[in-house]
Automatic annotation (TrEMBL), chain A:
It comes from Zhengella mangrovi. It comes from the Bacteria. ATPase required for the correct placement of the division site. Cell division inhibitors MinC and MinD act in concert to form an inhibitor capable of blocking formation of the polar Z ring septums. Rapidly oscillates between the poles of the cell to destabilize FtsZ filaments that have formed before they mature into polar Z rings. GO terms for biological process: division septum assembly; negative regulation of cell division. Belongs to the ParA family. MinD subfamily. One of its GO terms (cellular component) is cytosol. One of its GO terms (molecular function) is ATP hydrolysis activity. This is Septum site-determining protein MinD. The gene is minD. Interacts with MinC and FtsZ. Pfam families: CbiA.
TrEMBL record, chain B:
The keyword Kinase does not apply. Gene3D superfamilies: Cell division topological specificity factor MinE. Transmembrane segments: none annotated. This is Cell division topological specificity factor. It comes from Zhengella mangrovi. The gene is minE. InterPro entries: MinE, MinE_sf. Belongs to the MinE family.
Length: 271, 87
């Protein structure tokens, strides 16, 4: 039985889609069978980030409406045998994403995959609540910035109240993925640091992804960063996050922090 | 001047953290779907009604949240002859 993960944030532009692609690919790279599902009906982008935009024939709404079978809508990644994409619809009416339909699709995916990773749309409307509805665990993508932290807090509240697990009195595992982190700015006191965000949101840390040019490069060429630039610090941070998600106990390393011992000293003097 | 700008820089993340802590304490209380004030209002009214007859329209419960303390203000209008009527 597969595990359903929702990648969510409330705020837009914090890196949900790139993180979905990178973690999905990282899990597939270690041999697990993974499907990444785009819930952003009307504004799909996971296909583009995954480099599969020209291979979309059927989508999630087609499957829900019974116009296509699930197997017809699933797109197998060209680079990784065990990675699949279920794209969102681009043009259709959002109301066609029904709770019953989503439940059915998730149930079928659970029997066929090890991981079902749902890329949530921004906001707290229907698409976002349906993306989290059946989640066993959530990755809350947060930037070290006030509006993102506030929205994450709101989303954590929804995860604790509006999911099937929460309604049954169970807990949805929640993991913080701190994205676009700049260790130098955090060290100089100009950016919320890892401890600040963890203290405010009080959920366990899945990983810290450094702000980096690799991400833009990866989306430019349509490949998850763990595939196209696997030795980069960014990719390594995602690999480790994926391993922690799978239950491995690896200590979280904060990118660039070793340097910052010196950096702190000189950085402060220079300020 | 250097020292001043150093302190100013240090303050921005601290300011962010403090502002968030205060804001989220409020929002968690109000967004959680549990309306504390209206529950308190009903229960306070029920207790008072055991002893004196009051009109529910004349009971005002107001909560002001702040740091470090929040205040609960209860304003009940009791008519002159209420006791007699309740008895």
């Amino acid at each position: 039985m597969g595990k359903v993960i929702v990648v969510t944030s409330g705020k837009g532009g914090v890196g949900k889609t790139t993180s979905t692609a990178a973690i999905g690919a990282a899990l597939a790279q270690k041999g697990d069978k993974v499907v990444v599902v785009d819930f952003d009906v009307g504004l799909r982008n996971l296909d583009l980030v995954m480099g599969a935009e020209r291979r979309v024939v059927y989508d999630l709404i087609n499957v829900i409406q019974g116009e296509a079978k699930l197997a017809q809508a699933l797109i197998r990644d060209k680079r990784l045998q065990s990675l699949y994409l279920l794209p969102a619809s681009q043009t259709r009416d959002k109301d066609k994403l029904t709770p019953e339909g989503v439940e059915k699709v998730i149930a079928s995916l659970k029997s066929a995959f090890d991981w079902i990773i749902c890329d949530s749309p921004a906001g707290i409307e229907r698409g976002a609540t349906l993306a989290m509805r059946h989640a066993d665990a959530a990755i809350v993508v947060t930037n070290p910035e006030v509006s993102s932290v506030r929205d994450s807090d709101r989303i954590i509240g929804l995860l604790d109240s509006k999911t099937v697990k929460a309604e049954a009195g169970e807990r949805v595992e929640k993991h913080l993925l701190l994205n676009r982190y700049d260790p130098a700015r955090a060290a100089s006191g100009d950016m919320l640091n890892v401890d600040d965000v963890m203290e405010i949101l009080s959920i366990p840390l899945l990983g810290v992804i450094p702000e980096s040019a690799n991400i833009l490069r990866a989306s430019n060429i349509g490949s998850p960063v763990t595939l196209c630039d696997s030795s980069s610090q960014t990719a390594q941070a995602y690999f480790n996050a994926a391993r922690r998600l799978a239950g491995e106990a690896i200590p979280v390393t904060i990118p660039g922090e070793k340097r910052s011992f010196f950096g702190k000293f000189f950085g402060r003097k220079a300020a | 001047m250097k020292i001043l700008s150093f302190f100013r820089k240090r303050a921005s993340a601290t300011a962010a953290r403090e502002r968030l802590q205060i804001l989220l304490a409020h929002e968690r209380a109000s967004v959680s779907g549990f309306d504390l004030v209206s529950v308190l209002r009903e229960e306070i009214l029920a207790v008072i009604a055991k002893h004196v007859q009051v009109d529910s329209r004349h009971v005002r419960v107001k909560m002001e949240r702040g740091m470090p303390v929040s205040t609960l203000e209860v304003d009940v209008e009791i008519p002159f002859d209420a006791r007699a009527r309740a008895a």
